[in-house]
């Protein structure tokens, strides 16, 4: 491959310029791991959700839980009232739900009252026990604001529509600061909800980025030093890695995509992939130096050896990554496309800019590569095994895969954002605590719609909602429900001196209309639009994973289908719905992405080898590790989720690189000498060493990610390392076996073919 | 332009909008820090507004993308003297809420009594009058907007003169002395210099610098010598939801019988209807 050679100074200048420009762009990075960032904006459920929020408040909140046996004393309540007022003044807050701010509907002397459940004025006239009893007796608030024993109390902060995770972080900090200022820190036992979860993920991804970028880069540079003992090699590698990582993340900025927990994997991934490419280049340079070449001649020789495979490995890796672009989950698609573009930029840098720098400044001899020698023995042993016992190797590999394939069906497609953190993590503990003491933090809504004004003043419509609500409350997953029927029943009850037999839905449409007419609280219009044509029934669920939520939704929809809904349309919506929809998006994206990766990589193989048989042959040792990854996930119970959904495509893209390097060398030697065995031995001797080294380095770097406390990063790191190691073993063992077996087959066919068909 | 921009005769009588008059008063009160602001507030509070008032009008709720929702009603208001004011509101349409009534007695000490009558229930029920921030029949008016707010409850500051809709108005800032007795953190009023009627009021939530609600007078008329806002708009600046109050008939000083402001009249629409003009 011929590449126009730049001067070393110009190449270095270009490299530094690229680094500076991309570095400057990083200041515009948009950190947003909010759930909305994950959903395709054109999905019907998303569009419905967006329209729903025009009428109703968001269901993503921050929940603070306060505990103690004196929560209804002045010492606890006064600071709480002050805290609610302070938070309501925060411009990021739309509403605070607490005992002092929610409506209490009840009877008063000769009348009826809608008033705060327990504010300053009301508390002043009651002792602690009376306050506790008043709150616990409130049917609407008791179930979600106060625990049955009165020793836990929630404060729910509902934000205005926040643009990104940094605003959520600011809201969480403001809330914590307000709690501290109110002197309630000692009583705060949990801060949870979607906002807190998002903030925890933001912190985790920032921490992982700050930890693993330097860690993977440091490990890679250390290995480069140990392998080549050249300061120039380490310095240039450090610069190239920094530029590629910056450039890739800058592409994300330019594409207008947010930096999410998925894209947080970009920096360490690009760092690892760049080191792998550089090692091939440095290895070739080292071999050229050992041949006595120096200066431009050394660089030209090395470039001839690696430019073509480097380009093709970049293309195939990019293809694997770009296949993630088929995912409907926005951050996964953005990750794949940006990483693919970064990979192409990386190959352009390694092929176009790095050689001139070495041509200009690389003087002196190179390390003899003794450090890699131990690898030669392992490579030779595996190759030998594959060649000598090709049939056995192929049969055992096929058997292992065949036995393992059924395990793939055991994979759970599941995403549970809380499972992204260890059990001991504060956010997991906080959510569990709130779920145990009060309500589940997963929210869902049933949206009832009739295309006529005032439809939800009609008792027949409200009765259906009431029936549905009764059924929902009997479901084990449901910890809390609320609908406009509750408010009407409370008004009916309040207007009738709190007589229990009036805590029902009145049947007189005029009475309902009149109750709703004089209702002066704030809660009603969070449940029904002002047209009374659309209303929502809100649910809190004690379940978290997408799979369980989907099962619940399916059961609910089946129940709704059995009911006479009259002219009402009912849709399941809310955060829980969007979150659960990811399950199907993940599966669809996985299937489409993997299929696209295989097709694209196969096409590149075909373009490179120009023989369908060779292209197919090279795909075998790379498809097998993907199967093994899925088998491992099935056996180990690892879920197919937001992070693991990317592994197969990423592994396929990377693993094929080794095959390309080995097969390229094999074909070169076969063309030169004609002997299959000899060509295999030489190819594995020269290239196998670099292939093993790069794979081990990549695995080391991915295993580093495996030390993350953030589960998606950890599982991505560990499984990718498993996939790459498996691919290496298959390349070293299965590929020679395949080449020998296919060669024998071809020879056999050649021998048995009738003479009149021979050429 | 419905507002008179030329100077008005001194001691020109003031309007009583349907309810917005009270709303105008509610923005004003005496100031300690700013004598000019206090004087202006007191002038607004003290303006003549008749011994009693009867209005037939409509309340139209308007929401973007939806047909307006119109309510028709009669409002009776009587100044009992000594700072006690009684108001009876009777809704007459639409049919499902027809005859619903609300009786409010504002006592001189500042407290109020309030009863609601639901015809479907057939009996009046007392409702707490202390709830300032509650929405009046689902409109953009809060109960606080319906009551006379005594001058002393706020600190007033004259800010500037400003031309508003062609009228050179006085801009007055009113801040509750005790934040607990108002749902608002602050109000800015654009006062007609002669009529002493607010042509515009911006309402602020506590601690916020941007108004969340705005009252605008759309028509100011002199009826029986009293300046009266006969068309006004209250806009929720966040949602864009609007409540338009218009008066189709306004009569002052009819000598309304005090019995009209009793629970008997509240729960007997037929009896009340005898007082309709």
Number of helices of chain B: 5
Main β sheet profile of chain A:
4 strands, antiparallel
Q: How many separate domains of chain A? A: 3
**Fraction of residues of chain A in helices?**
55-70%
Tell me the β content of chain A: 5-15%
Oligomeric state of shown chains: heterodimer
Query: Rg of chain A to the nearest angstrom?
Result: 32 Å
Low-confidence stretches of chain B: 1-32
Mean pLDDT of chain B: 85
Number of helices of chain A: 24
Strand content of chain B: 35-45%
Strand line-up across the major sheet of chain A: 2-5-1-6
Shape descriptor of chain B: globular
Helix and strand content put the structural class of chain B at mainly beta
Pfam families (chain A): MMPL
Subcellular location (chain A): Cell membrane
InterPro entries (chain A): MMPL_dom, Mycobact_MmpL, SSD
Membrane topology (chain A): Multi-pass membrane protein
Structure report:
Chain A is α+β, with helices and mostly antiparallel strands and 759 residues long. Chain A has three domains: 8-35 and 200-416 and 580-752, Up-down Bundle (Multidrug efflux transporter AcrB transmembrane fold); 61-192, no CATH class; 428-544, no CATH class. Chain A is 64% helix and 8% strand. The model of chain A is unreliable at 754-759 (pLDDT under 50). Chain B contains five helices and 13 strands. Chain B has one domain (20-273): outer membrane lipoprotein receptor (LolB), chain A (Clam). In chain B, strand 12 (226-236) and strand 13 (242-252) form a beta hairpin. Chain A: The chain crosses the membrane at residues 210-228, 235-255, 261-285, 306-326, 332-354, 390-409, 591-609, 616-640, 646-666, 687-710, 716-743. Chain A: It is found in: Cell membrane. Chain A: It comes from Marichromatium bheemlicum. Chain A: Its main location: membrane.
């Amino acid at each position: 491959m011929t590449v126009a050679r730049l001067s070393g100074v110009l190449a270095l200048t270009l490299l530094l310029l690229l680094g500076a420009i991309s570095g400057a762009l990083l200041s515009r990075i948009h950190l947003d791991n909010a759930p909305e960032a994950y959903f395709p904006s054109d999905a019907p459920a998303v569009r419905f959700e967006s329209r729903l929020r025009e009428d109703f408040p968001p269901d993503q909140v921050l929940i603070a839980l306060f505990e103690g046996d004196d929560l209804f004393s002045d010492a606890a309540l006064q600071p709480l009232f002050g805290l609610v007022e302070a938070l309501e003044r925060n411009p990021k807050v739309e509403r605070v739900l607490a005992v002092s701010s929610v409506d209490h509907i009840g009877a008063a002397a000769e009348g009826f009252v809608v008033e705060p459940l327990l504010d300053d004025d009301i508390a002043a006239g009651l002792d602690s026990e009376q306050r506790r009893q008043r709150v616990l007796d409130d049917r609407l608030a008791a179930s979600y604001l106060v625990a049955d024993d009165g020793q836990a109390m929630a404060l729910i902060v509902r934000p205005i529509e926040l643009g990104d995770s940094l605003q959520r972080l600011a809201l969480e900090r403001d809330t914590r600061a307000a709690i501290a200022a109110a002197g309630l820190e000692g009583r705060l036992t949990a801060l949870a909800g979607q906002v807190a979860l998002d903030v925890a993920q933001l912190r985790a991804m920032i921490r992982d980025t700050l930890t693993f970028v330097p860690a993977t880069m440091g490990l890679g540079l250390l290995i480069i030093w140990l392998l080549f003992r050249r300061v120039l090699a380490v310095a240039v590698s450090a610069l190239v890695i920094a530029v590629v990582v910056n450039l890739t993340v800058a592409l994300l900025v330019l594409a207008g995509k947010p930096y999410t927990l998925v894209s947080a994997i970009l920096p360490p991934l690009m760092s690892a992939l760049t080191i792998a490419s550089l090692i091939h280049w440095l290895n070739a340079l080292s071999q050229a130096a050992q041949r006595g070449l120096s200066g431009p001649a050394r660089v030209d020789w090395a470039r001839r050896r690696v430019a073509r495979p480097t380009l093709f490995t970049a293309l195939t890796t990019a293809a694997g990554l770009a296949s993630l672009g088929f995912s409907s989950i926005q951050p996964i698609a953005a990750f794949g496309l940006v990483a693919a573009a970064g990979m192409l930029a990386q190959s352009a840098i390694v092929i176009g800019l790095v050689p001139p720098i070495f041509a200009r400044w690389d003087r002196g001899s190179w390390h003899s590569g003794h450090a890699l020698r131990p690898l030669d023995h392992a490579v030779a042993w595996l190759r030998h095994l594959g060649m000598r016992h090709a049939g056995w190797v192929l049969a055992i590999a096929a058997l292992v895969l065949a036995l393992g394939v059924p395990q793939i069906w055991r994979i759970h497609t599941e995403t549970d954002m809380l499972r992204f953190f260890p059990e001991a993590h504060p956010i997991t503990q906080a959510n569990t605590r709130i779920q145990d003491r009060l309500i589940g933090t997963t929210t869902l809504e049933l949206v009832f719609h009739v295309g006529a004004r005032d439809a939800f003043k009609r008792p027949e419509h409200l009765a259906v909602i009431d029936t549905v609500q009764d059924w929902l409350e009997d479901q084990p997953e449901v910890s809390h429900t609320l609908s406009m029927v509750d408010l009407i029943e409370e008004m009916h009850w309040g207007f009738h001196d709190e007589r229990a037999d009036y805590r029902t839905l009145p049947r007189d449409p005029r009475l309902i209309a009149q109750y709703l007419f004089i209702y002066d609280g704030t809660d009603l219009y969070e449940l029904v639009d002002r047209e009374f044509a659309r209303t929502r029934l809100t649910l809190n669920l004690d379940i978290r994973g997408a799979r369980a939520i989907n099962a619940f939704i399916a059961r609910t929809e089946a129940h709704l289908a059995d009911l006479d809904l009259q002219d009402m349309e009912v849709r399941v919506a809310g955060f829980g719905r969007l979150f659960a929809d990811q399950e199907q998006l993940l599966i669809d994206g996985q299937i489409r992405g993997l299929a696209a990766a295989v097709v694209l990589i196969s096409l590149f193989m075909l373009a490179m080898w120009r023989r369908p048989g060779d292209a197919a042959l090279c795909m075998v040792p790379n498809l097998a590790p993907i199967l093994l990854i899925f088998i491992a996930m099935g056996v180990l119970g690892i879920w197919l989720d937001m992070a693991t959904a990317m592994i197969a495509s990423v592994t396929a893209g990377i693993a094929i690189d080794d095959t390309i390097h080995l097969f390229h060398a094999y074909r070169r030697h076969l063309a030169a000498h004609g002997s299959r065995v000899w060509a295999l031995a030489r190819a594995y001797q020269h290239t196998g060493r670099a292939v093993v080294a790069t794979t081990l380095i990549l695995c080391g770097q991915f295993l580093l990610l495996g030390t993350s406390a953030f589960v998606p990063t950890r599982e991505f790191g560990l499984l990718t390392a498993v996939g790459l190691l498996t691919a290496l073993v298959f390349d070293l063992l299965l590929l020679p076996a395949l080449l020998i077996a296919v060669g024998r087959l071809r020879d056999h066919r050649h021998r048995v073919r009738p003479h009149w068909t021979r050429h | 332009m419905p507002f008179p921009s030329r100077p008005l005769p001194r001691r020109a009588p003031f309007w009583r909008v349907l309810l917005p008059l009270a709303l105008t008063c509610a923005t004003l009160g005496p100031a300690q820090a700013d004598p000019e602001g206090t004087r202006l507030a007191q002038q607004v509070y003290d303006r003549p507004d008749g011994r009693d008032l009867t209005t037939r009008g409509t309340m139209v709720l308007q929401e973007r993308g939806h047909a307006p929702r119109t309510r028709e009603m009669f409002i009776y208001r009587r100044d009992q003297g000594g700072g006690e004011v009684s108001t009876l509101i009777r809704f007459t349409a639409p049919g499902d809420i027809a005859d619903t009534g609300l009786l409010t007695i504002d006592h001189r000490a500042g407290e109020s009594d309030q009863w609601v009558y639901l015809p479907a229930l057939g009996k009046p029920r007392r409702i707490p009058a202390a709830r300032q921030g509650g929405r009046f029949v689902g409109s953009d008016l809060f109960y606080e907007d319906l009551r006379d707010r005594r001058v002393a409850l706020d600190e007033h500051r004259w800010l500037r003169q400003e031309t508003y809709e062609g009228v050179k108005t006085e801009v007055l800032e009113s801040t509750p002395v005790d934040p607990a007795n108002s749902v608002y953190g602050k109000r800015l009023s654009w006062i007609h210099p002669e009529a002493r009627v607010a042509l515009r009021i911006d309402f602020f939530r506590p601690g916020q610098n941007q108004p969340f609600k705005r009252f605008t007078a759309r028509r100011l008329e002199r009826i029986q010598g009293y300046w009266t806002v006969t068309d006004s708009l209250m806009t929720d600046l966040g949602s864009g939801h609007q409540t338009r109050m218009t008066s189709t008939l306004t009569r002052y000083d009819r000598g309304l019988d005090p019995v009209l402001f009793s629970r008997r009249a509240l729960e007997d629409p037929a009896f009340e209807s005898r007082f309709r003009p």
